[in-house]
Amino acid sequence: MVYTGKPSRACQTCRKRKIKCDEALPACTPCLKSDRICPGYIEAFDLVLRDQTESIREKVQRKKRTKPSTSSTSPPVDPTSTALVNSNYPNLEFALSYTVPQAFRESPEQAALCYFFSTYVLLPCNPDATRGYMGCIQPLYTTAKLGSVMSVATSALALSMLGNHPGRQAERLLSHLAFGKALLLANQAIQDPVQVKTDETLMAVLLLGMYERINSVAGQSVQSGQHNAGAVALIKHRGSENIKSDISRTLLLAVRTQLVDSSIQNSESLDNSSFDWPKILTNVPHNAAVGLILSTADIADLRAFEKEVFGKPGNRPLLEKVIELMERASQVDATLAEWPKSLPESW
C-alpha cells in the first residue's frame, strides 16, 4: 500500500474521457447526458491507499528477465545428490527427505487451558474478598505431572468452559473424554496410600464436582453429593495434612463451603456428626468473605427445620413449631447482622 497524493473522485468513465465529473448521485451528469452507464465512485480510502502488489511483482519479473546470466565453469550440483552425503554430513539425505511445515496449530487442549487460566484463575483480587479455591489451581497444576489426575481434571474443566461458547462443540466432546479419564485416575489416586493425602487429589475431586455442576442439564438438580461426600472422606483421611499449608487450609474451607451450599439448596441440615467441623475450623484463619459463608451454616439448619415444620403442602403446622421457627430465624438474622462489624476499614 502506497500513498498516491490527493485523489480524484471522478467516475472511471469521465476519467477515461478526460472530462470534468460533477460526482452527482446516483450517476454523474456527463454520463447521463451522453447516455452512458455511470460506474459510480471509488471510496476515498481506496483511492488514497492503492494496492501496488501486482505492479511490484511485474517490476521484479522484468528485472529478472533483463539481468544477464553469470557463466559458471562448474556444473550445477543437485542438493539431493548422494555426492553431498559424506562423512561430514551423514544425515543430510535423511533431512532433505522431509519438509518443514509452514505453521504449527495449537491443540484444543492448550487453547482451552490458556482461556481457562486467563479468564478464571489468574485474576487480580482483593485478599479480603477472596473465597473459594480457584487461586490454588495454578500452583498445584504447575507442579503436577503430565497425565496426573490434577492435570487431566484441569484440562477437562478448561475444555468444558471453552466448549460452552458457540461453535465449540469439538472442545465440549473432548471435555467429556477428559472427564472420564479423570474419574479413572481419581479412583486410582484414592486407592493409593500416598496420593490420597495430597492436595492435588483433593483439588481434582473439587474440580470434578465443578465440572458436573457446569454441565448439569437446566431444570435438573445437580448430582454433586457424591463428590462432596468424597471430599469429606478425603479430609477425614488426611488428618493433620488439612492445616499443613495455606493451600491445604484453603481447600478445607472450600469443602466446607460446598457442603453448606448443597445443604441450603436441598433444605437439609448440615451433618456435623461424621466430621467435627467447628473444632477443626477453630484454628483456620479466614478473611471476611469466608467468614460470611461459614456464618451461613445456620441457614441450612433453618431451612431443614422449616421443611420439617410445614411438611407437605396442605398440612397445618403446630403453633409451637412455628414460634420456634421464627425464633431461630431471628437468631440467624442477628448473626448475619454482626458480620459487617468484622469487615476491614478499607471496605
Q: Any key phrases for this structure?
A:
about 350 residues; mainly alpha; 16 helices; 2 strands; elongated
Q: Can you walk through the features of this model?
A:
The structure is a single chain. The protein has 347 residues and is mainly α. It is built from 16 helices and two strands. The chain has helices at residues 12-17, 29-33, 44-48, 53-66, 92-96, 108-121, 137-143, 149-163, 169-191, 199-214, 225-238, 246-266, 277-280, 288-295, 297-310, 319-338, and strands at 2-3, 49-50. Strands 1-2 form a two-stranded antiparallel sheet. The protein is elongated, with a radius of gyration of 36 Å. The two termini are 55 Å apart.
